[in-house]
Structure formats: C-alpha cells, structure tokens
Write a structure and sequence with these properties.
By secondary structure, this protein is an alpha/beta fold. It contains 15 helices and 17 strands. It has a nine-stranded mixed sheet with strand order 9-10-8-7-6-5-4-1-11, sandwiched between helices.
C-alpha cells in the first residue's frame, strides 16, 4: 500500500518559526495549482493507496470542493482502500463547523489542528492568526462534524512558555478527549523569520529537556502511548501516513517542494509553484513524470536507522542486515551496551530502541552508530 502526500504551498501569512515552502494565497494561483496538481495525479498515482495527507503550507485555504476534487481523482486513478486514512492539516481559524462537516462528507477522516499553544500571549509572539478560544472551538466543531480522529499540533518551548503553560494546554485539550498529540520542540531553522530576529524568552537545553519529560509523563499518565519521539496516541490512533516515513515505506509526494520515496528511491520537486504549474500543464506517462523530479538517492541503511529510531518500537539489527546487508561493528555493539547501562537504550542483541531519556539525546546516540 502506498501513501500520498499533497503539499499545499499557500498561507495567508507566514508563522515566524516556519521555513516550510509556501507563498501567499490568492484564488487565481490556487486554481492554477489545482489544475497542475490534477495533471500530476493523473501522471503519477496508481495502484493501492491507504493514506492521503494534505500538508503545507495551509491546506485549509482550499475549499471543500477543491479537496473533494483531489480525493475523487486519486480514487479514480488509483485503488483507494475502504479504510484509507485521509488527513488534512487545518488552521483553527479555518475550522468552522460547515467546512469540517463538508470535509467529513467527502471522505476526510482525520483532522490535524495547528493549535501550537493555548496561551494567547505566546500565539501572538509566534505570529499565529488564532487565539486559544478559537482552538477550543475548532476541536468542538471537529467533534460535532463527526471526526473521531483529531490531532493537536503543539510546539514546546515557545518564547516565554514554561512547563506550567504547556501543562495547562495539555490538560484542557485532553479533557476534550483528543486521541492524538504531536509535540515538537521549537527549532529555529534558517529561512524562518525568527532566524534573523531571535525572540526573547527561549528555553535553554536543560529547560527543554524538563518540559519534554513533563509532557511525556503527563500524556502517558492519561493513557496516551508515546509511540514516536514527538507523537502520542490513544490505542488505534497512530498516524498511518507518518508511519510510512518512519518505516521507510513507499509514498508519493505531490506538489511543489514535495518529497517521494518510490521503490527504494527518493525524489523531490523544486520549491517553486511557478515551475510546478509550468511542468504539469498536461498529464504525461509515469516515467516522464518521474523524470521531472529531482533524484535524491537510494533509501540507505542510515535512513532506516535514523527514522526507525524515532519510533518507540525501534529497529531490528537482523532486519537491517536482511534489507541492506549491513551489520554493526563490534565497537558499535559495545557502545550500545554502554548506552544500555546508562539507561539511554533498550537493547537485547537484536532489537534496539531509545528510552525516554534516550529520545532527548537521539541525535548523539544515532550519530555514534551510523
């Protein structure tokens, strides 16, 4: 089964921490994008599909009719499974009841709300276009529209945010019975507005670790499974599509700036709406469409290790050998035993995973064994 990722490269405004590719939304540009996207779908999508993920950018700038057109086209050219997970990232200010009800009626069955924080002061500092009441209303609207599978995106360690603020956000949202949380520690990448204007009140490394551990403890105490380094789920609500990334499975990325992994090879399309629209003025055979993408190399053992170690289930060294013919050296196996003694990894000679404390040092641990 293949997953489909659709990059919707439009935003009303740019959040200060974000470097994802997007341009300012306007109706004419969106219509041209939808036309090009439809041609790319006809060119690249076929076979069995069990997940569609609308990411961005801001997918909720698209109308429900435009979302329906895309989902229907994918279903027409491919074989969309009856239980396919169809996710749409949605800004809280866009999540009115009518819009969500229409999305549910066309087959979208998972909503990911970009809440980020329930502190109005913090939301202003990071350039978000909503407040806490809007977020709470968005969750309530999603429930009323019939969504059971709702994710709350939260960013930890935002400027001026302490563990008490984060804890209150989680308390409020968990009482609304959300089945999934994504909790990412703030990063300030080059290309974001914050990169050239660092905000005050950022947490140092020790404070970040404290907040991360407190969030994990709180969510686990509420029966959420910490199944990935930044993701928590009630049983049965793991994000199927994202698991494809973490398990190095096949997925097709559509739209400008989208990445794909097809039959063990990685590809991407340049970050340009204009080039995307010029390239897909018409549909074309799959092989020609594939040649419009930039080759990014093979899925390598390093990818299997880095992505797999993000999951609480970790990786199997025997699977690593079966897939890539790679075995860890005696020196690296000794290092894993040392990490085990330090309480940073679980390791039985084959199965390897990070502990909660190991998640905090994941980059250091993984880099020492690849």
């Amino acid at each position: 089964m293949t997953g489909i990722y659709i990059h919707v490269p439009f935003c009303v405004s740019k959040c200060y921490y974000c470097d994802f590719y997007s341009v300012k939304s306007c109706s004419n540009e969106i219509n041209s994008y939808i036309s090009a996207l439809s041609n790319q779908i006809r060119s690249m999508v076929s076979g069995d599909i069990d997940s569609i993920f609308f990411g961005g950018g801001t997918p909720s700038v698209l109308s429900s009719a435009q979302i329906a057109q895309i989902v229907e086209l994918i279903s027409d050219v491919g074989r969309l499974s009856s239980d396919a997970e169809i996710t749409l990232e949605c800004n809280p200010e866009d999540a009115n009841l009518n819009y969500l009800t229409e999305l549910k009626s066309i087959g979208v069955n998972r909503i990911s709300l970009g809440i980020q924080s329930l502190s109005d002061c913090v939301l202003k500092v990071i350039g978000r276009g909503h407040d806490s009441l809007t977020s709470e209303t968005a969750v309530a609207n999603a429930r009323k529209a019939g969504f059971d599978n709702i994710n709350a995106d939260l960013i930890l360690c935002l400027p001026g945010e302490n563990s008490s603020v984060v804890s209150k956000s989680i308390d409020k949202l968990s009482k609304m019975d959300l089945p999934h949380f994504s909790t990412y520690i703030l990063s300030i990448p080059e290309g974001s507005l914050f990169f050239n204007d660092i905000p005050r009140g950022l947490s140092d490394d020790d404070k970040q670790a404290e907040i991360y551990l407190e969030v994990s403890a709180k969510l686990r105490s509420l029966s959420y499974e910490h199944y990935e380094i930044s993701n928590f789920s009630k049983p049965g609500f793991y994000c199927r599509h994202n698991l494809k990334y973490w398990k190095c499975q096949d997925y097709i990325g559509l739209g400008p700036a989208a990445h794909s992994s097809i039959s063990g090879l990685r590809y991407s399309f340049p970050k340009s709406v204009k080039l995307f629209e010029e390239t897909y003025k018409h549909s074309m055979p799959f092989e020609i469409a594939l040649s419009t993408l930039t080759p990014e190399g093979k899925v390598e053992p390093i990818d299997y290790i880095i992505m797999g170690m993000r999951l609480s289930e970790g990786i199997s060294l025997s699977n690593l050998y079966q897939l890539f013919g790679i075995s860890l050296s005696a020196e690296k196996l000794y290092m894993l035993e040392e990490y085990k003694n330090m309480g940073l990894v679980n390791f039985d000679g084959d199965h390897l995973s990070l502990t909660l404390e190991g998640f905090l040092l994941s980059n250091r641990i993984i880099s020492s064994i690849i």
